[in-house]
Amino acid sequence: MAAGRYLKAFFGLFAAGLAAVALINLVVDPYASFHWRDIRGFNDQKHLKRGGGRVNKAVILSRYPFDLLFFGTSRAELGLDPNSPALGGVAAFNASQAGTNMTEIRIEALFAARHQTPRAIVIGLDFIAPPFTDDLSAAADFPDSPFAGRSLAPILLERLLSWHALVDCFTVIGHSVRHKPDPFTKFGYYDRTAVRSGIDHRKAFTQVLLEFLEPRSGYRGYVHRPERVTQLAEVVARYHAMGTRVLLFVSPVHAHQLEAMWDLGLFPAFEQWKRDLVAMAAQADHGEGAPVQVWDFSGYSSITAERIPEQSDARMRWYWESSHYTKDTGDLVLARLFSAEDRVGAVPADFGVRLSPDNVEAALASIRAGHDWYAKTFPDEVEAVRNLVRSTAPR
Amino acid sequence: MLFNSPLFLLGFLPICLLVFRLLGRVSWTAALASLTVASFIFYAWWDPVHSWPMAVSILGNFVCGLVLVRVRGGRWGTPVLALGVGLNLAMLGWFKYAGFIAANLEHLAGIRVGLDPILLPLGISFFTFTQIAYLVDVRRKVASEPGLMNYSLFVTFFPHLIAGPIIHHKEMMPQFESRRRHVFADDFAAGSALFIIGLSKKLLFADPVAQFASGAFVAAAQGDPLGMFAAWQGALAYTVQIYFDFSAYSDMAVGLARMFGIDLPVNFNSPYQADSIIEFWRRWHMTLSRFLRDYLYVPLGGNRHGPWRRHLNLMAVMLIGGLWHGAAWTFMVWGGLHGLYLITNHLWREVRQRRGAGPSGPLGRAAGVAATLLAVVVAWVFFRATSFDGALAMLAGMAGLNGIGLPTGAESATASWQGMGLALALLGLSLVAPNSQQIMRHCHPGLAPVAAPDRFGGLVWQPTLRWAAALAVLALASTFSLWSPTEFLYYRF
Fold it and tell me: With an 8 Å Cβ cutoff, are A13 and B464 in contact?
């Protein structure tokens, strides 16, 4: 065979192979990079984590318009379901990330604002959360994502012509055919119930709290940084100026978490942070558009004081562990934010309060009173947290 | 720019080939000029600001070569050569070794130099050695006066620029002056086949096994006691990683050059099939061995002054060879170990000769391969480790001082059946399979003739439909693995 014919055969076969794989990746689209519509039972169970959760979420945010966006940390990622009945079927996407901080949330939210104008955004706020840093060093796949300025073309090309996309195509088809839900849903929500491994809540509470009680990071390494609120203010101002309704809420951490903060003397800083949030929101309102709302779900309530079972196989309704709340709790949060109790049922009256400059002090005082109530009602739990705090104290 | 990056494969290379092909129809010189420009762009892509050392080096050596051509017959020949070589070494020393020397001065003598970190120009070890060889060849009257463009292309020709092969002026200039072959399709078919073989070695073998090497070395560096299994897995995985990584680069370099109608010297000849360390160094990084032999070992006296002097020269050459790879004591130890191995090998040969022993039989040869491989693997531990302590911790693990530590249910990168299996499979492949140039031998890859392999002699590339299909599959598999390109190990040297 002459070299010319050989080359034609080689490039012909190579191109055919590329086209075939690209077609499979395009049709199945395991990361929802090319089209939003799916065929139920064929490719509806996407897998957003493979290839980088941030990469995939950034691609989705830059390609598809949504009515409602969620931002936040892993608490919001696990708790806020864009298909929650509280939302009444609006097109929503959960852009929250695990292991993030306000520095990254700001970048991601501003990125989203450059690509779409949602009717509302919801930002789940944590006083402090892993990885306990203010830089982007822990945001593993951030540098590879369009959030960090990477252009879309090479990412889409990769999604057409890569092994992992092809392998994930077959995973997606397999899961879709069997109607097996994937935890990393197309809507950006992390469906913990789709994870097979069970959870021993009592152990998980201790484990997570220990993470927050590390000697030099977590609560003990807390440093007040006003830029956390300033960064948030920039996001709020941007969306507010676009006419987007902005709803902020303080995550409903379990009372265990509050007790640890109380024991470590962090409550004054926690309260000041809330005051700063309220002041920032008030400052952002210029009388035009819907007012910026700040909600606080972090008080002691019938939800946040949920009893922790001792049996390893017993399931909690509202919490996975002290830091991450379940979708049921998330539904209540959303119902409260969007006044949608008619769609999800009654939200306990003690769960969530809208903060304003007028009521913030009273709300904070109520939480302080809640601490006394919790100590009286759950003395063993308070003692357990206190022991954990003591046992982890730096020597 | 990496050979295994989408930017290179989908942008840079096709454009270069197209321009080269079009200009080649006009004139060979114009085609070479396009290659020179492309090579500068290729290099500057890494960091345009920090590309000046290479430009300065090329201009300086070109001028030095011009002067040498004129004075080489007289008494100024040696001083000018010494000046040229000295300046090259000074430049290499500044960029590559100044930090190392400063750190050691501070550590050993308490003298604080206060040197800021210096960015190591990409490929400086390679382009410096290439040009030192050129100056020596000019002095020896085996290289003549080149034009600036051809000289620039000789140094910068992008297939070999970053990580070799280290080329000789006398091999390249005749090719630049007149085209060796005139059918572009023939060269492109052969070159692309070799390139794809190299690309797939990198992406399908070297990169996947890397994770099983790094776990053990990182753990050892952190002081974690390594079990025998984990340590051997790490050492063997690195042994195959570096072979498949570096030989992949060399295949790609030779293949790329061939696409442009230019032949480069081959750099690997199944080194792990060597039955002695002497043989190993004739098969591993062959152009570096050639350089060290011709420009260091022979000028030092080689074997012309008796066995002891030869051993001394060997040790000096291997220590310098070790240091050439990087400014660290671990590289020195690696070089020193190979020096010891070579001296031992020579002594063993002398003993055998004195006893009148004939050539080894199959069993003796197998024992030689096993012993050589074991010695090479042990030396690689120092080459890969980031510290002397880390290397010793690895060796302690390999010696079984921390128990065997078979993998349990939870597979980890440090100790896993998958990692050990992959490392052993690749090692087996490198021990029995024909190498790239043997597979390509009908189209004469590289500059030297290639012997047929001992096994699988029928595996010979030819422009057939079957090979087109096989290489298309390899190219597809490589393309699908292309998206997180990793640096070639030798880019760091």
Answer: no
Domain end point (choices B178, B211, B243)? B178
Q: What per-residue string of b and e applies to A20-30 under the rule 16 or more CB within 10 Å gives b? A: ebbebbbebbb
Return the residue in B464, B480, B482 with the most chain A beta carbons within 10 A, the one to mutate for interface testing.
Answer: B480
Check whether residue B162 and residue B79 sit in a common domain: yes
**Annotation says B325 is catalytic:** yes
- A156 has a chain B CB within 8 A of its CB: no
Partner residue facing A14 (CB), from B462, B472, B482: B472
Q: Are residues B195 and B172 in the same domain?
A: no
Distance between B422 CA and the closest CA of chain A, angstroms: 19
Assess whether B202 and B114 both reside in one domain: no
- A151 vs B: CB within 8 A: no
CB contact under 8 A, B480 and A163: yes
B170-229 residues touching A, CB cutoff 8 A: 183, 185-186, 188-190, 192
Q: CB-based contact (8 Å) between B475 and chain A?
A: yes
Is B483 within 8 Å of A162 when comparing Cβ atoms? yes
Number of domains in chain B: 2
Could you tell me which residues come within 8 angstroms of residue A335 by beta carbon, excluding any fewer than 6 positions away? A86, A341, A343, A344, A345, A347
Domain membership of residue B269 (yes or no) is: yes
Residues of B in contact with A7 (CB under 8 A): 185, 188-189, 192
Question: Are both B109 and B127 inside the same structural domain?
Answer: yes
Do B371 and B233 share a structural domain?
yes
Do B263 and B405 sit in the same domain of this protein?
yes
pLDDT classification of B407: cutoffs 50, 70, 90 = confident
| DSSP letter string, A177-227 | HTT---SB-TTS-B-GGG--S---HHHHHHHHHHHHT-SSSGGGG----TH
Write out the residue range of the structural domain in which residue B372 sits: 186-275+360-492
**Average of pLDDT values for B137-155?**
89
Q: Is A1 on the interface with B (CB under 8 A)?
A: yes
Tokens describing residue A371? 């601490």
| Interface contact B188-A7, CB threshold 8 A | yes
Q: Check: CB of residue B450 under 8 Å from CB of residue B174.
A: no
Whether residue B24 lies inside any domain: the answer is no
| CB distance A298 to A251 below 8 Å | yes
Which of A152, A205, A226, A177 is closest to A325 using CA atoms?
A: A205
Summarize pLDDT for A166-192 with one digit per residue, the tens.
999 999 999 999 999 988 999 999 999
- CA A158, CA A151: separation in Å to the nearest integer? 12
Which of B178, B200, B223 is the C-terminal boundary of a domain? Answer: B178
Alpha-carbon gap, residue B76 to B58, rounded angstroms: 22
pLDDT at A45 over 80: yes
- Mark which residues 109-148 of A lie under 8 Å from B by CB: none
Residues B103 and B155 in one domain: yes
B468: nearest CA partner in chain A: A10
CA distance B182 to B179: 7
Q: Is B240 left (phi over 0), alpha (psi -120 to 50) or beta?
A: alpha
Q: Determine, for residues A161 and B467 on separate chains, whether the beta-carbon distance falls below 8 Å.
A: no
- What's the complex ipTM? 0.87
Is A10 an 8 Å CB contact of chain B?
yes
Express each pLDDT in B71-103 by its tens digit.
Answer: 988 889 899 999 999 999 999 999 888 888 888
Q: Which residue has the higher pLDDT, A134 or A341?
A: A341
Q: What is the DSSP string of A41-52?
A: TTT-S---STT-
Cβ atoms of A325 and A319 closer than 8 Å: yes
Q: Write down the catalytic residue from B325, B338, B346, B444.
A: B325
Mark whether B199 and B57 lie in a shared domain.
no
Residue B357 in 3-state DSSP? Answer: coil
Query: Quick check: B481 contacting A, CB < 8 Å?
Result: yes
